[in-house]
Amino acid sequence: MINRTNIIVLVVLWCTVQWVAPLFAGASAKVGVMDQQLIFERSKAGKAALEDMAGYAQTRQKIISSDEQELKELQQALEDPNAKLTDAVRQEKEEQLRGKVEAYQHRVQEFNREVQQKRGEMVAEYSRKIAAAAQAVAQKEGYAAILDKGNDSMLRIVLYHQAALDVTELVVKEFDRQNP
């Protein structure tokens, strides 16, 4: 049975053969590499989007922190040995605390889902924009292909390349030109 890793290896080998075969047939192909993450981090629009995303997440974190503080205060009030609470009042406060803990947990999940969704939408949008900038650089500079190097957190497609093949900075400039 073929597992996912074997399929990926087969696809990479097939792509390599497709690019290498013309080289042996006398045709030459100019290939460049780029780092999509660096383009996102170094471009003006990418930096602004990352700052917006950080502000969005920070706003939600402030709400969560406020909720946490309220829960701590309720818990401390229940545990205070000096508080002379009747059984009925204690039970009411415990139920109130349980309800607030459930609401807190729900809010945390909802905020995490919102942040992940917004991050995913941002990545998809900027991936399209970076691809357009890379295509413009490829056409302008005569590249047959520009490959994303990947990084340690993703599948690294390009395991080695000569520094002269890296067009990341050209793509950053083109990205900034296309996305003022």
Architecture overview:
The chain has 180 residues and is mainly alpha-helical. It has a single domain, classed as Skp domain (Protein Binding, DinI Protein, Chain A). It contains five helices and two strands; from the N terminus they run H-E-H-H-H-E-H. Strands 1-2 form a two-stranded parallel ribbon. The radius of gyration is 26 Å and the shape is rod-shaped. It starts with a helix and ends with a helix.
Which features does this protein show?
mainly alpha; two-stranded parallel ribbon; 180 residues; Protein Binding, DinI Protein, Chain A
Helix/strand-derived category reads: mainly alpha
> What is the fold named in CATH at topology level?
Protein Binding, DinI Protein, Chain A
The succession of helices and strands, N to C, reads HEHHHEH
Mean pLDDT comes to 84
Highest-level CATH class: Alpha Beta
